[in-house]
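Researcher: Here's my situation. A collaborator sent me these components and asked whether they could plausibly form a single complex. I don't have experimental data yet, so a predicted model of the whole assembly would be a useful starting point for our discussion.
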Amino acid sequence: MLGDEAIARGAVEAGVRFVASYPGTPSTEITVKLAEYGKKLGFHVEWSANEKVAFEAAYGASLSGLRAFVGTKHLGMNVLSDSLLVAAYGGTRAGLVIAVADDTHPYSSQNAMDSRHYCRLVNVPCVEPSDPNEAKEAAKFAFDLSERYSLPVILRITQRLAHARGAVELDEIPSNQDVTAEFQRDRSRFVLLARQAFERRRWLIQQMNVARRDLSSSGQRIFDSGDKLGIIGVGIGTTYVLSIATELGLSDLSMMKLSVTNPLPEESILSFANEVSELLVLEDGDPIVEREIRNLLQMNCVIKRVHGKDDGVIGFEGELTPDKIVSGLHALGLVDGETRHEEKIDVIPRIAGLCAGCPHRASYFVIKEVLSGKGGGIVTGDRGCYNQGANFPIEAFDTCMDMGASVGIAYGLAKSGVDRPIVAVIGDSTFFHAGLPALENAVVNQAAFTIALLDNGWTSMTGQQPSFTTGIDLMGQTAPIMKPEDIAMAMGVKCVKVVDPLDVELAKQVFREALEQDEVSVVIFRRECALQELRRIRAAHRKIEPYFIDPEKCTGCRVCLMKTGCPALRFDGGKMSIDQSDCTGCGLCVYACKYDAIHKGRS
Amino acid sequence: MLISRAIMGAALMAGFKISGSEIHGHAVRGGSAHAIVTYGKNAGSPLIRTGDADVLIGMEMLEAARMIRYLKRGGVALVSKLKVVPINSMLRNDRYPSEDEVAQIFSRRTDKFFLLDVEKAAERFGGKRLSNSVLYGAFSVAIDNGIDMKSFEMALLENVPKGTEEANLAAFREGRRLIMSYDV
């Protein structure tokens, strides 16, 4: 079972009744798995508009007595933090757990922030498992803690555990979990005006102090072969140490594993620290526990060196790895002799791109052609699989920051007076997640730029989850379809157009006109994700009609490849060709060829 | 990912403790992806040290070479001859290495390098999609792995789509044959 799936299982074993999340690598699989359980067991699982909405929905469920759960990637914590920071003052009724998967490397995210800072900022408990089996147990434990202290609890993992596979021991799923939702009014808790907030802050600090006392002796000794070094391990790093210790036959060190990292189990750490000469703290992410341990020792006049990331014993960059741990142990004199340094072999990179047949490729083709006719423009990009268009050779983006930022930044550039065509590229799911307020702002505060809304009907980046434009929900039920054009018009955008990006000439004309407006305009490039379309074609046993390049006419100029970056195009022996099994028959490459060499079917 | 899941399944059936992890990257969009599998009497680790892998299974030559730092010196490398030429290689000066160059890269690390025509073998039994099973079959006999053939076959059947079991089993057996008859 995947670490993510194990968390889903744990939540189900804990009797979860309400799940609201927004997809995001590496956390998506938690909620996908929960949806499977939800369909079978009859509890609600949804993709919400964004993480803030998801958290608020789950908080509402908790207040009505249903055990509630939110799954998110680290960046989603920023979005939901606004609600969480206040909800912690009100406190919960039924258990409320937020499972966050941090991408500490990062492998598929725009930053590598450590979500655990929020546990301190919000002042709520944090549980950190170290393998899939523990992840399942941690989910159950997190629900217990939440109900014990009436606080939301954060279950934090990192990408390696999210996508780690391991055997998981299953326990029974409780039957008869149906709870009647009931809201018990308590205005002193849930109407947080300044006066109540003052009182509730006192309550929150008190709750965490109680938790600090209760959990002070938590933590588990898992290794003991001497006292030269005491390792305090958090999360997946402890698993690495165990296998390193077995392999290298390490002696002179002991290890303790923490599973609750906020509040810190002070008693366990102090007694462990007193038994060893020095400490090494291993955690994937920022040196948060490491610094708190230094603080704890200082407060208790325990003078011990605490190694970790701050003193460079463990490398700071990228995820925590067994290599980093071994080189740290070497630096501390616990591994002798050679340290292996396996250099990366210098091979050419592999640049990822859009899938064959992807409608976004056609949208970029149109946008770039029109902008180049206007002496070039500025394109602010956004988060989704369309950001593959930032890669060589399409290289369409000038900025690509956080969710929704394409519209906000484009507005800022235009309002600042940058005198070039400005285009914000945003996908449908991202538009509903964070683009709406930025568009409202652009309409009211008035600046001239164009939003290219790439509507492929799915949240494709994370594996084709339904979005608000799909017409079905996560549970497979029919859902209303949100039309971005209706919304833009209702907001007061005068120039709102919908085009099929593969109708290239028309799309160019429409897009060109939109760029000429002296206020914000919206062009919706609408065509379904090619992977969905292919799936349907295959299921219906329909044939795809691929394109073919006439070798007589092809000059080998490679402009088709340069302009489209299509993975079905091949260049070999000085000529271009099309891989007949990869081609989806979209026909975009035809527009890129000056020599009329590309035709449907075999000539 | 199929190979790693099947190996873990087989190891579990054979009574071992298993652990592993996957980095999907942007595999579906032409990026690279890899998975790590450990099994043994003791619980392993989802991530290993570089230079520690007993076996490296490469489904594509360039990606196999990219991951060689994980392979231990003298370890077994099972690499498909498949070339998926990246777009940067077709448009820039990033030259895709030849079979000889890939062999050279591996020879600095191990003499147990098997470059296998996996696709050709797979196509004989029904298509390129069976390549995974060919390599999985190769793994089953390329090293003393402690897993019995029955577990290998059962784990394969558990991990392939319904209706493709026979073809995958045939591809698996062909993978075994490729190693047994490998001519260095």
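Model: Some features of this prediction you could bring to your collaborator: Strands of chain B lie at 17-23, 34-40, 53-58, 71-80, 112-116. The longest strand of chain B covers residues 71-80.
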